[in-house]
């Protein structure tokens, strides 16, 4: 298996960090933009798209700042995806940083998928 490449995307979001954190860390928030439905039992999150299910485990989180998941089908892989809120100390501008990994030949597709997902998030937040 070839190694995946880590990448980071930054999206300016016009929303308070507290509100944004709710949308990236709770099943109800994530089901508004990330998946059709999201359920959680403790650290396990179940994401449902068009009837297909994927489970992810929360690896770490810091309230109001970030959450990091690992897909369970990739349990042995070192790969994860992280959603991190960044606030500019001077301007107070809020950005959502997405950290993810992709195969080299799929990196553009994966980035585009995130761009579409974050576009949905911005619409839900009224930040579009």
TrEMBL record:
It holds the Pfam family START_2. Residues 1-126 form the START-like domain. Gene3D superfamilies: 3.30.530.20. It comes from the Bacteria. This is START-like domain-containing protein. It comes from Formosa agariphila (strain DSM 15362 / KCTC 12365 / LMG 23005 / KMM 3901 / M-2Alg 35-1). The lineage of its organism: Bacteria, Pseudomonadati, Bacteroidota, Flavobacteriia, Flavobacteriales.
């Amino acid at each position: 298996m070839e190694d995946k490449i880590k990448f980071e995307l930054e999206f300016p979001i016009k929303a308070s960090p507290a509100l944004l954190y709710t949308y990236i860390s709770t099943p109800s928030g994530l089901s508004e933009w990330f998946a059709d439905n999201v359920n959680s039992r403790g650290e396990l999150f179940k994401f449902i798209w068009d009837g297909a299910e994927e489970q992810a485990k929360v690896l770490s989180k810091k309230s109001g700042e970030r959450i990091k998941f690992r897909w369970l089908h990739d349990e042995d892989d070192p790969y994860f995806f992280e959603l991190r809120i960044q606030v500019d100390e001077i301007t107070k501008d809020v950005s959502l940083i997405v950290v993810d990994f992709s195969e080299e030949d799929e990196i553009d597709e994966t980035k585009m998928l995130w761009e579409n997902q974050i576009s949905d998030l911005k619409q839900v937040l009224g930040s579009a």
